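Progress against Task 2.4 (sequence-to-structure conversion) is shown through the following example record, which the project officer requested during the mid-term review.
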Amino acid sequence: MDKRDLILHCAMEQFMQKGYHQTTMQDIADAAGIAKGGIYFYFKSKEELIQSVFESYLERMSGILAETASRYEPGSRESLFQQIKTQLDELTSHSKMLLLLSSGQISLSEQMRELSMNARLRSFVWFRNQLVGIYGARIEPHAFDLTVLVTGLVREYIGFILLNGAKLSSAKLARMIVRRLEDSVRGLENSGDEPVLTSEAFRTFYPEGDIGDGAERRRLVEAAAALLKRLEPELESDAGRLHRPAAGMLQEETASPAPRPVVIEGMLALLQAVDGLSGWPETAAVRAALAAWKAVPQHEPDPMAAQKT
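Structure tokens generated for the chain above:
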């Protein structure tokens, strides 16, 4: 941990223990084991320090969620459950910091308000993309409405934990939220209701958000990467060398900004010569991700398909 990170860590601990106004720069310096002047080398004021603590907390949360997601199959319900559980655990463990930021003790700067809003919107988009990755294109029109339901549940339960001191199991709570989500997906599919919060409406106030085809393309890239990883031993053999061009083309095409379904299907057909590949779960995952990608109306039409019509 470098000195700047050490100062941020100690500042967060002191702010949580004593409160923002009661914590002095000397308290933070003593906790970090440095001279008070060493803090001012990195931060001009306590206001700048609390803003950096907030930024550091948001970055840490994003990193933890990304690391959690990497341990589970992309687009799986278990991945969603684990990420919701992780978020609940992290929010609960930093409850004093969250209360500090929301209690009115600190007069939030315009930059901190913007950071907070952007973090909220990024989290919202993350949930939305997770849901589309799990349930596929069929729920895409209602993805934002479902996200409101999920994030609303998380926010209200966190409120009971932070403000009322409720002792709730994060695992039990996360599992319940995922199950209620399943109920909501079935209910919306059978209701015939029109979506309320559409992608078009969301883009009006968060145009830079990674929505639309983002989740489907990521799912396709991740599924292809898993298949290619399992193929590696096969490609090292003398017989497997014949399949390297098709594997290379599959990797290149799925990683392109607008993967062409007909090319991917062609490469999968060539790779069927690999013994047992057609029955691999990784192959099924690529086909499922490809079907979801083909259902996305935003991606560019396949030029080869256009020539056939």
